[in-house]
Amino acid sequence: MIRFLSSILALFSVTTIYAQQNAIPKLVVGITIDQLRGDYLEHFKKNFGEKGFKRLLNEGVVYNQMVYNFPSPDKASATTTIYTGTVPFYHGIVSDKKISSEDFSEVSSFLDSKFMGNFTSEKLSPLPLKVSTITDELKVASNGKSDVFAFSSDASGALASGGHLASGAFWIEDFTGHWATTTFYTTYHRFIDEYNRSDQSLNTRISSLVWKPKSAIETYNAFPYTQNIKSFQHNLATNKNNNFRLLKQTPYINEEIRKMGVSAIKNAELGKKEVPDFLALNFYAGNFDQALDKNYSIEIQDTYQRLDQDIAQIIDAVDEAVGLENAFIFVVSTGYFDEQEVYPKEARFSGGDFKPDRCEALLNMYLMAIYGRENWIKKYHNEQIYFDRKLIEEKKVDYRELQERAADFLIQFSGVQDVITSYQMLHGAYNEAIQVYKNGFHRDITGDLFIELQPGWRIVTNKNPTNHKRVRSNAMATPAIFFGNNLRPQKVNRVIDATEIAPSVTHRLRIRAPNASNNMILQELF
Q1: I need a surface site. Which of 87, 304, 436, 443 has the fewest CB within 10 A?
Q2: Residues 6+ apart with CB under 8 A from 13
Q3: pLDDT at residue 242, as a whole number
């Protein structure tokens, strides 16, 4: 009899634990941190409190290395990949900027002239995002009853995480500092409008914002190579033509996003319905253009310390609203880092300078010699060559042959490691390198030739003559953390793909994965 009762109690305990672990969360909070580095979380942890990053790392399911399996991820392409569970080849957001098919100018990847802006002159919408998102699927599953809010420093982060069906997706306008959105979303939110018109808005406060160290300057000693161990002070009102864009590189942008996230939880009563709600927050953890030391700045240490406190306040707000057992929080990085390197004047490295303008001119001269004296090249952008396809069609030139001739010519340039044609990506024989490039390719958006440069070479452009980009192929420690909803803490050292995040989140919500997501669910989240 005692053995029987023991078995019943054991079964009841196991069933209870399983039910807790698999309970549908009332509130999901997706936190994307632009340029977050896992090694910096380790280096800076002595300056963290106990309720922010340390809590996530100690009590969450922590994946130490997540990869984006396509070239040159940025905030727009990475955030879209996280929320769609697929690569740019399918979701269509290859970078923050794309080349206009009309005049070959650089425009937002979310440009949409059919919709006006609220508190902005930008005309944008999520429609250029070609597949569904986690948040779209939640709205569909709940028949529109779930609330979805997204906040970001820029439009790409807000629209990618908010998706097509968001209750609201908001970003900071570059010239006014107001929280802006697009008329694509038709729901009105009084608390956003009231904030924009209040004395608490960035537009009102920018003249008084001065970024100084939060802690004693001697505590920012994570890097033994820092040249300027002295206090810093950046007055954000001094550059009036660029002050809000500069602010987006400081911890004040994270403070603003955190404030709006907490406000949305309270004002929209997120997590209080019979269906789950979703809050998407997009923070910043990158370098500051005016850092005292570009390579190993004390500013970035201060950024992480302040962000740690913002994360702690978000966790506390969620706990107070619904309880952490009823919340599912995930934190992911965008998987890249802008180094802003400064080299000693006497430094001599292998390699040299790659000049896109010269490359474009020489290639066009070569094509003129073969196909006639026309301008066959429309644009060089982001290590891609865009041909004049209309001209190629009018002159009845073999498009594939022109691509191959151009690739054969460019591969002879010093500093060029490889050249891949769009035809190869769509029709050619596959190898691992071509597959990676194909993942980041979209036939309606990207160029005709992709140029891979050798590591160590500088890209020298007239556009930015004082800060030339140097090619690096380093893998960056890119963490992904899941927290709450009765998850069992554990650290996972295997490499995961960014496309595994979306199906894993929708699995916890018991809804369909986004319609282009075909990856497996992370087994630790079952």
Answers
A1: 443
A2: none
A3: 85
The per-residue DSSP string of 222-250 comes to S-TT-S--S---EETTS-TTTHHHHHTTS
Using an 8 Å Cβ cutoff, are 384 and 447 in contact?
Answer: yes
According to DSSP, the β-strands at 117-118 and 106-108 are unpaired
DSSP string, 52-65: SHHHHHHHSEEES-
Strand blocks (E) in 422-523:
449-453, 458-459, 469-470, 480-484, 490-492, 496-497
Residue 58 to residue 47: CA distance in whole angstroms: 16
Here the tokens at position 49 are 């409190």
CA angle 227, 228, 234 (to 5 degrees): 145
> CATH assignment of 353-470, given 3.30.1360.150, 3.90.930.12, 3.90.1700.10, 3.40.50.2300?
3.30.1360.150
CA geometry: angle at 125 spanning 121 and 130, to 5°?
155
For the stretch 199-230, pLDDT in tens is 999 999 999 999 999 999 999 999 998 877 78
Indicate where the chain has its CATH 3.40.720.10 domain(s): 23-339+477-525
Residue 57 makes CB contacts below 8 A (sequence gap 6+) with 41, 481
Angle between helix 501-509 and 134-141 (nearest 10): 20
CATH fold of 23-339+477-525: Alkaline Phosphatase, subunit A (3.40.720)
CA distance 118 to 179: 9
Q: Which amino acid is at 379?
A: K
Structure tokens at 359: 């490359």
CA gap 71, 92 in Å, rounded? 14
Residue 457 CA to residue 108 CA, distance in Å, equals: 28
| CB 327, CB 271: distance < 8 Å | yes
Q: How far apart are CA 360 and CA 245, in angstroms?
A: 31
pLDDT digits (tens, 9 = 90+) for 360-400: 999 999 999 999 999 999 999 989 999 999 999 999 999 99
Please state the length of the chain. 526
CB 478 within 8 A of CB 459: no
Residue 516 DSSP one-character state: T
CATH 3.30.1360.150 maps onto the chain at 353-470
Contact between 208 and 237 under an 8 Å Cβ cutoff? The reply is yes
Residue 463: band (very low, low, confident or very high) from pLDDT cuts 50, 70, 90: low
Q: Are 136 and 84 spatial neighbours (Cβ–Cβ below 8 Å)?
A: no
Q: Quick check: pTM over 0.85?
A: yes
Phi, psi of 394, deg, nearest 5: -65, -40
How many other β-carbons are positioned within 10 Å of the β-carbon of residue 284?
26
